[in-house]
Amino acid sequence: MTTRVMLLNGPNLNLLGERDSQVYGSRTLEDVESAFVELAAELGVEVVTAQSNSEGVLVDRIHEARSLDGIVINPGAYAHYSYAIRDAVEAVRVPCVEVHISNIHAREDFRHRSVISAVVDGFICGCGVYGYELALRALIKRIEEKKAGPLAAS
Amino acid sequence: MTTRVMLLNGPNLNLLGERDSQVYGSRTLEDVESAFVELAAELGVEVVTAQSNSEGVLVDRIHEARSLDGIVINPGAYAHYSYAIRDAVEAVRVPCVEVHISNIHAREDFRHRSVISAVVDGFICGCGVYGYELALRALIKRIEEKKAGPLAAS
Amino acid sequence: MTTRVMLLNGPNLNLLGERDSQVYGSRTLEDVESAFVELAAELGVEVVTAQSNSEGVLVDRIHEARSLDGIVINPGAYAHYSYAIRDAVEAVRVPCVEVHISNIHAREDFRHRSVISAVVDGFICGCGVYGYELALRALIKRIEEKKAGPLAAS
Amino acid sequence: MTTRVMLLNGPNLNLLGERDSQVYGSRTLEDVESAFVELAAELGVEVVTAQSNSEGVLVDRIHEARSLDGIVINPGAYAHYSYAIRDAVEAVRVPCVEVHISNIHAREDFRHRSVISAVVDGFICGCGVYGYELALRALIKRIEEKKAGPLAAS
Amino acid sequence: MTTRVMLLNGPNLNLLGERDSQVYGSRTLEDVESAFVELAAELGVEVVTAQSNSEGVLVDRIHEARSLDGIVINPGAYAHYSYAIRDAVEAVRVPCVEVHISNIHAREDFRHRSVISAVVDGFICGCGVYGYELALRALIKRIEEKKAGPLAAS
Amino acid sequence: MTTRVMLLNGPNLNLLGERDSQVYGSRTLEDVESAFVELAAELGVEVVTAQSNSEGVLVDRIHEARSLDGIVINPGAYAHYSYAIRDAVEAVRVPCVEVHISNIHAREDFRHRSVISAVVDGFICGCGVYGYELALRALIKRIEEKKAGPLAAS
Amino acid sequence: MTTRVMLLNGPNLNLLGERDSQVYGSRTLEDVESAFVELAAELGVEVVTAQSNSEGVLVDRIHEARSLDGIVINPGAYAHYSYAIRDAVEAVRVPCVEVHISNIHAREDFRHRSVISAVVDGFICGCGVYGYELALRALIKRIEEKKAGPLAAS
Amino acid sequence: MTTRVMLLNGPNLNLLGERDSQVYGSRTLEDVESAFVELAAELGVEVVTAQSNSEGVLVDRIHEARSLDGIVINPGAYAHYSYAIRDAVEAVRVPCVEVHISNIHAREDFRHRSVISAVVDGFICGCGVYGYELALRALIKRIEEKKAGPLAAS
Amino acid sequence: MTTRVMLLNGPNLNLLGERDSQVYGSRTLEDVESAFVELAAELGVEVVTAQSNSEGVLVDRIHEARSLDGIVINPGAYAHYSYAIRDAVEAVRVPCVEVHISNIHAREDFRHRSVISAVVDGFICGCGVYGYELALRALIKRIEEKKAGPLAAS
Amino acid sequence: MTTRVMLLNGPNLNLLGERDSQVYGSRTLEDVESAFVELAAELGVEVVTAQSNSEGVLVDRIHEARSLDGIVINPGAYAHYSYAIRDAVEAVRVPCVEVHISNIHAREDFRHRSVISAVVDGFICGCGVYGYELALRALIKRIEEKKAGPLAAS
Amino acid sequence: MTTRVMLLNGPNLNLLGERDSQVYGSRTLEDVESAFVELAAELGVEVVTAQSNSEGVLVDRIHEARSLDGIVINPGAYAHYSYAIRDAVEAVRVPCVEVHISNIHAREDFRHRSVISAVVDGFICGCGVYGYELALRALIKRIEEKKAGPLAAS
Amino acid sequence: MTTRVMLLNGPNLNLLGERDSQVYGSRTLEDVESAFVELAAELGVEVVTAQSNSEGVLVDRIHEARSLDGIVINPGAYAHYSYAIRDAVEAVRVPCVEVHISNIHAREDFRHRSVISAVVDGFICGCGVYGYELALRALIKRIEEKKAGPLAAS
To answer: What residues in chain G have their Cβ under 8 A from chain D's Cβ atoms?
Structure first.
């Protein structure tokens, strides 16, 4: 059966390419989603994409991902305080990789900590929009391991 | 000219495969280094590998990396307090990606923060030993961008 | 005139019965709401039920409760940071009892504090889904006292 | 066999009805104990009541409760610092519900946290002396679940 | 070309005039918006008004303001934790003045800090609903300076 | 009777126009005082101006303002630690508006908090020297409300 | 009617004169009590004295003081953590002056704060055993003021 | 030789009797100084009185007290942050008693700590203006002990 | 003259052997005391044993130890907050070794710190009930050194 | 088979006997090692001793101890921050007892906490160099228990 | 043109030589100023000296130094809280070296941090009054570098 | 006998001249050592120089300095956490001056505090590489004072 994953982007990421390009680069969200879907297709994976500025909608989307095999999420600023999103990720028990475009550890204090990071399988930041590709690879690896079962742990 | 990178592992990583396998998996450091070198070769990149339990030796190695194109570093527990390693990474101005095998945000409090993370180009954790491969890809991407110069930023 | 109250559930509580059953039990939200409405009916009280994953919608619902006699709210993870919900509860000046299924004091640090708890009339946690029934009783008691006026305080 | 529970009140609760009635209401401890025993009798439960201003005596009483089925405790101000009482509750492994008359989250900072709350089965505050009745119901529910065994968890 | 600004009000401000009048005064949100529009008209400025209890909707509105010349925002309680709104204000790079009706420094501890205030151009609080008028004047001043360019800084 | 107010400037504000113009603008204190007096005259208000680098002198001036109708104060760096000035403002019970030229929330950590702000009627920052004009308007509004008495509160 | 007060000493004060004399002086508790009773007699006041190392007993004694006119208490180390004693002092609503022999602000960090001090009428420390005499005078003054009623406040 | 002491009052105490009388009472500074001088005379002690709103002047006055036998100081709000006054008191090595009219431990958080208190001989607060009289008695006691030398310590 | 020591156990240690045996082992307090007395006898030392759940009684016991040569104390949970016990240990100036059965540094945060440990001669934890034997040996060593006088320090 | 243990001393302990003898006593490291080896021989245990000022060398030594039965370690100042040593101790899963000559809880604040203590089996401090002997005894006890298996736990 | 510098001393430094000589040495301020002027003369530099106990006067003096080439300042206790002096030093943009006679890092906690140190060019402490000479040398070096311009940086 | 001192440089200082020249200047470590030795020769002092990136080697070097008269140390980033180096400096009881090239108080938060500074005789920072010369002078002064004995203290 085909592996299906969700690419979920949080608040202000719809402005990608327009917002401060020194931090976030010049590619738009559409570019990022296209590249993600393309790589996924090469690797035999289907993608559902979504973006929302609303915490509640993001929780809804994560709930929907229960019927999928994994999630790549860039929670944007919600990373720093949304325990509701954290609870959603934990509750759905679907492999999840968190990605941030910039190096959040090198920016303002409030960005150093992601309250979501403790419940995800992988965490990637500072690699620019290329981080989405790494996150996809990490997620697929994780899904494969999960399917292989506990014996195949590495 | 061939791209050359250093794979640097910190304290206790020589015990990989032996140390708690639930957290770190069953592969040895040798396995990890081999896989890293192999992938690098496929991508046309040469690798220098090193491991040390000594903070001072790690600083020395980072200094030696000035003649290379980049560093993938797993600083182990030094991540949480070694400002000397942080200074070394910052001083050599060589692209650097930090990697941790486990999800440090999901373990003891003292592991949640890496004092080195603020000066690296990319940060990856929680992806198991597969994270080394992702780190290598992220590093190469970063080296290419750097060579392309500021105009090619994305 | 019939007493009318709102039963309001916050983020991820729509997953009740599915989410980690060791913490939250095996009953669904529908089960909980039915039992609540049933007990209320026995006690001569009408109920409006609502659930949302969105902070803004929860604020809207609390505003609507101005035309009712009281609120039982399980704010889920919003309990830990939603000053908007706190302000809403405080603004509508309707008796309100906060309930949590699990004992939030025995879980992760960030769950130990509810920013809403300072403005509610009663607070109940750790009693499982049975806590909703206790909350209803506490709310009705509070409504009766309020109707009886300051002289009947006990 | 008849269910038997202890109602244990801590420091200054012997002044109930006399102490600031705006916070604690006008009923005396005797009133509260009578109402508690009465409701318990209706529910087929026997009660042992005790009050002490001494931390050590409260620890002793909790130890005695090992021969009973459960405890309802209002630890008064000891809630905020008595790790000895916390240890006693944890050691005796008897179902226990903590109750406070006032909403401790709405008062001085030092009252916001109960060091005992992490080891109790249920926690109720802000419901006035009516909270004792709710605590009794919660305790009986918990005792029933325990008797029913792990299969009946809800 | 006519200057056009947005007046954006956050959670619970739809209850203005009804909510505690000792703190917020007796005028409704409609009154406030009318007075704001009227003054703006006198000063030759057009106004778009919006209110929402939802963080995500507020982020959306701020994004829409990219086609306008400025924003007056009263973020209500979101001021104290919404890094998503902060990011939105920072991302759109449109002049923005933050206003609070009450003196947030004289109230509960959690209200003393606005996480948004670091990215706005002006900040006004404690002046009652009259603060909106001051905010409008401050915003227009800021827009004029911006149009005049760096040379006209004062 | 004519309304009379004091314009009080604290330490280092005598260097206005000379000190870092990127933060404080290029206008001198004399310019600012003149503009303030002029606007006040238009609004039928008399002004007493004063500046001092000394905390004690500022306290003295505030005491003198007991015979006036209000104070606009820019306490400069004393804002961040002078409880003596705070006490003086509170003691004289004269309407008072605090103003800062720069946005203190966007600068060094120690500037984020004004210990005086909790006892003033209005607080304005980040609006440049134009903030003095806004402060004057806010003060006059406050004086009028006070004269109108509690019934006219808005 | 004769004024009657309690002199209450807490833990380890029974060792007075024996314990480190550089800090506490060489007079025994008996000496201190005698001098206290003697001065009281001169001032027409009767004294009940008590000492206990037990927190619970001290709470009991404070409750007994409800039939007296005032309390002078040296809570010893309980000053630093006994919220039970604090609650007792607050509950009995009897004038109370707290005294410490040594200057607690000049000793170890944990002694700098008395959790009881916020609910007493007067607080004296660092005056040696002479502080008891000062406390008695302060207490009598306070009792007189209370009897004179609110009009005679000074 | 006659004992001579200084009575030193800090910022805003010149407003005594005028400032919030619920906290500070209705007597003026003049009243307080007169009563102080009168009691001192009865006890055979001469007094120099001084008041200043300026930290620097208070330091100067303390330096002048080197030619006197002791100091009673009410540092007002400077108590909470003036390390300069603390250093002055410590440097002059003259017996010193600190007094506050109100109970600083029962007011705002920032008033709970006096940075000066660690270097004084006695500390009295919460006894109203009567505290000055107690402070004088404590100071004289301390001066006598000092004159009697280390052998007479009590 | 025979060396005589006290073995003092604090709250909940009377439940030893019954309380969680994974943490505390399966031996009862009686077993522990017997083994302790037996070893002491072998080493020519007499023992007084005592246990209490009451802080005040423990203080009393420590005072009684003034006529003995040393104390081995397991203060149980009082270790974490009883400054009264700390003061008692410090006041009696008798050699004292503190012992905990479990490794308190490896358990809940509140157990990491013993407020008593700063005034004892030796501190032992994590060695199980065997720690009592080590504590006895350490205490005897300390007593011998003390008797030998300062010259024999090692 | 003979039991073999490592005695490992950290930074500055090579100065033993020379460094402040009031704190550390007058015996040299050689003396301490000899006494340790001698007692071990009596108890039928072989010892490997090592000392290093280098964190990395200490980690190496701990790794070598995998072929031994246990470790007695005095980590010196590394105790307070070396997470690398902590990780090493945890990784090798060899019984380990930590010892400090002085009572670290009674010295500077930074010495109160050992980050290593949470992963050792026993912890002893304040018993002077005699603590090494106690540590050896505790370690042997722990090794015996481990060999006896889980059934013999006490 | 002759280089001219200011030597500015803060509160309590007028007591130099009299104040605790163990910490500050036995030389008077006059001695220190003379030695400073003498060395300056040898190095061809003119000196203006000033001392004040008043924060405001120190700010005034720093403003006057705008016509000089540099400042050596010993801010005394103001170092620990005077943001007004910090702002003055930053505003005048004149080279400035801060000096403290004692090693402030080895004294009370509140002395460990100088809020001024972040805006000075050099910082020297713990070298006794000889530190003034070092500060003068450092200042002259800095002035020379500044005159030489950015090219001569070393 | 000739005075002999050690110049000890810590981690990353071997990169001097290469590392960020805006912060550290353009001179190499060799240049700095040469200038240091030269000045020392002029002042009749011999120098031993050493640099290491290893904490352990630095501790070893400090131990070797026991045969010398003093140490000038730039501990680099170890300054911020190496209690092992602190202990070494304290243990050898040799005069020691700490120097930093940049003003550590004006950089990242983690650089504001040196844990070593509390045990050195002098502390100099922000004076560029010229600070080494000042440190040498300060050290020689300190050595002379020490040789002159306590009577010559200044």
So the answer is: 54-57, 59-60, 63, 81-84, 86-88, 90-92, 115
